Amino acid sequence: MKNLIAILMIALVGFTATAQDKNAKETIEVDGVCGMCKVRIEKASIKTKGVKSAVWNVETKELSLIYDARKTDIKTISEKIAAVGHDTKEIKATDEAYNSVHPCCLYRDEAVQKDHE
Ligand SMILES: [Cu+2]
């Protein structure tokens, strides 16, 4: 009987994990400095197929995501963000993409970082 309960528990946990795939929640680090960066980062995330919600916090540099894990993953989302010029922990933006952002958003520049403090 105990074994049966254990099996049921494992099955239940497994089922719950599968059910959550549709609404996977994850927070990743994304570099940026201002409200314009916020709009750019969130837009790039939301435009990624499978992403349901994306909220970036300028203070903590954290991007809170809700996405369908069957359709996309963190790597894909990170690539989309890097493509519009923002570094993520996993994927760095190319210099070309980085230089395409508004001059006040050049977050790798120390002077710009100071400006936004
Ligand atoms: Cu900005």
Question: SSE layout and pairings?
Answer:
Layout: H1 2-20, E1 24-29, H2 35-46, E2 51-57, E3 62-67, H3 74-83, H4 95-99, H5 110-115
Antiparallel strand pairs: 1-3, 2-3
The chain binds copper (II) ion (CU).
Copper (II) ion binds at residues 32-34, 36-37, 104-105.
DSSP E strands, number: 3
Read across the widest sheet, the strand sequence of neighbours is: 1-3-2
The major beta sheet can be summarized as: 3 strands, antiparallel
End-to-end gap: 61 Å
Structural class: alpha+beta
Mean pLDDT: 91
Contiguous helical run count: 5
Helix-strand string: HEHEEHHH
Proportion in β-strands: 15-25%
| Rg calc | 18 Å
Tell me the overall shape. elongated
As a percent range, the share of helical residues equals: 40-55%
What ions, cofactors and ligands are bound?
copper (II) ion
Given as residue ranges, the uncertain stretches (5+ residues, pLDDT < 50) are: none
Protein described:
- The chain is α+β, with helices and mostly antiparallel strands and 117 residues long.
- Helices cover 44% and strands 16% of the residues.
- The protein has helices spanning 2-20, 35-46, 74-83, 95-99, 110-115; strands at residues 24-29, 51-57, 62-67.
- The protein has a 3-stranded antiparallel beta sheet, covered by helices on one side.
- Helix 2 (35-46) packs across helix 3 (74-83).
- The longest helix has 19 residues, at 2-20.
- The mean pLDDT is 91.
- Copper (II) ion binds at residues 32-34, 36-37, 104-105.
